[in-house]
Amino acid sequence: KQEVTQIPAALSVPEGENLVLNCSFTDSAIYNLQWFRQDPGKGLTSLLLIQSSQREQTSGRLNASLDKSSGRSTLYIAASQPGDSATYLCAVSSSRLTFGEGTQLTVNP
Amino acid sequence: DAGVIQSPRHEVTEMGQEVTLRCKPISGHDYLFWYRQTMMRGLELLIYFNNNVPIDDSGMPEDRFSAKMPNASFSTLKIQPSEPRDSAVYFCASRTSGVETQYFGPGTRLLVL
Do B101 and A44 touch (CB under 8 A)? Predict the structure, then answer.
């Protein structure tokens, strides 16, 4: 059974700082890995999707990497802003989409 | 496009009552997913449909839960009878074949007293 773990569970940083969120998974036989953002009381918004054959994806200030053999992914956020405050979830697609428990990020002005 | 639409947004009911949650996927999407999110268990897939046919319902917790998709633009998730432990946020998501990105609705926040 696929298990997805995200570290840290919560993170608080000052505005402008670069930061890294971590995701690990137990079964490397995946189709893809996705990073989502969830704002309080809202649904999930897809940020980046990395296919199993890819190493990284970039969108604006976000960069996600994937090391399938070691079962790890990172989400790098450059020059963080208060508007980045949200919960970030990693999800791995194998037979089904399995989510981590998320990292709650707070960016302080 | 209006995105995935869910109703109601909030539901408060008493234990033993029937609860029906509704979802309208994005037009043209042929996959539909129902998820449940709780503090204890995080986000879990309950069931998903492809072309209105249930493909994987192994995440449905027990027989009290049932889901239907009578047509490409509508799905329901029913809980009968409801119990306090069913309290959670239920999300519906959809996507199209060949594109892995799922689009989530705003969720239904269910409280069973």
Answer: no
